[in-house]
Amino acid sequence: QEIIIATNNPGKVKEFQTIFEPKGIKVKSLADFPEVSEVEETGTTFEENALLKASALAEHLGKTVLADDSGLEVDALNGEPGVYSARYAGTDKNDRENYLKVLTKLENVPDEKRTARFVCVLAVVQPSGKKHTVRGTCEGRIAHQPIGENGFGYDPVFFVEEKGLTMAQLTKEEKSEISHRGNAIKLLTKQWDELFLT
Ligand code: ITT
C-alpha cells in the first residue's frame, strides 16, 4: 500500500511517514516525481491551495493523491501569516527568517494576547475528479524566543500549553499526537472508507 502526497516540504513528508509507515503504508511525495512541475498556490484559503496541489498531481498520475496546505494563524496579527506562512518574510527566505518576523511583530505583545493556531487542510483528489477536504487545528501561543530543534517551520516559536514545551521540543510521535496535521489525518482516516470505498 502507498499514499502519494503532493508536497515538496521534507518536514511534512517526515510527519506523514511517522504516521503511515508503522501501518505499513509507504509515503511518496513530489520528490518521487521529478518530472512534475510546481503548482502555483494562487488560492486565498488553505482549502483552495490544498485542492490545487492535489488536483494537479492526481490528474498527472491518474491516481488518488493527497495534498497538505497548512500554516500559522496569529490572533494579534489578524490571522497572519496564514496561507502565506511559507513565504512570510519573502519567497527567498527560510523558516528562521519567517518565525523571526513573527517574533519581531509581536515584540510588545503580552503573553495573554499571543494566542495562535496551526491549521492543516488535507485535500484528497481521485482520478475520477472526486474531491474531499478536512481541516485539523492545534491551539497554542507564540513564545518570546525560539526553543527546540525538532520539527520545522514555526515549531520553535509555537508554545503548546498542555505540554509546557514548544512544538520543536516534542518528538515526532508526540507532535503527531496533538498537531494540526495529526488531527487532520485522524479526521480523514475516520471518513476514508465511507468516502472512497463507496
Ligand atoms: P508544499 O506546498 O510543497 O506542501 P510548503 O512548505 O510550500 O510545501 P505550505 O504552502 O502549506 O507548504 O506552507 C506551509 C508553511 O506553514 C510551512 O512552510 C511552515 O512555515 C508552516 N507550517 C505548516 N505546518 C507546520 C508545522 O507542523 N510546524 C511548523 N510550521 C508549519
UniProtKB/TrEMBL annotation:
Cofactor binding, per record: Binds 1 Mg(2+) ion per subunit.
Annotated residues for binding of Mg(2+): 40, 69
- Enumerate the residues binding substrate: 7-12, 70, 152-155, 175, 180-181
Q: Known SUPFAM superfamilies for this protein?
A: ITPase-like
The record lists the catalysed reaction(s) as: ITP + H2O = IMP + diphosphate + H(+); dITP + H2O = dIMP + diphosphate + H(+); XTP + H2O = XMP + diphosphate + H(+)
Catalytic residues in the record:
69
- Keyword set for this entry? Hydrolase, Magnesium, Metal-binding, Nucleotide metabolism, Nucleotide-binding
Q: Which cofactor does it need?
A: Mg(2+)
Gene Ontology molecular function? ITP diphosphatase activity
Q: Which CDD domains match?
A: HAM1
Transmembrane region(s): none
Q: What is its EC number?
A: 3.6.1.66
The kind of enzyme this is, by top-level EC class, is hydrolase
User: What is the similarity comment for this entry?
Assistant: Belongs to the HAM1 NTPase family.
- PANTHER family, per the entry: INOSINE TRIPHOSPHATE PYROPHOSPHATASE, INOSINE TRIPHOSPHATE PYROPHOSPHATASE/HAM1 PROTEIN
Assembly mode: Homodimer.
The free-text function statement in the UniProt record for this protein reads:
Pyrophosphatase that catalyzes the hydrolysis of nucleoside triphosphates to their monophosphate derivatives, with a high preference for the non-canonical purine nucleotides XTP (xanthosine triphosphate), dITP (deoxyinosine triphosphate) and ITP. Seems to function as a house-cleaning enzyme that removes non-canonical purine nucleotides from the nucleotide pool, thus preventing their incorporation into DNA/RNA and avoiding chromosomal lesions.
Instruction: Name the NCBIfam families on file.
Output: PRK14822.1, RdgB/HAM1 family non-canonical purine NTP pyrophosphatase
What is the protein's given name?
A: dITP/XTP pyrophosphatase
Instruction: Give the originating organism.
Output: Sutcliffiella tianshenii
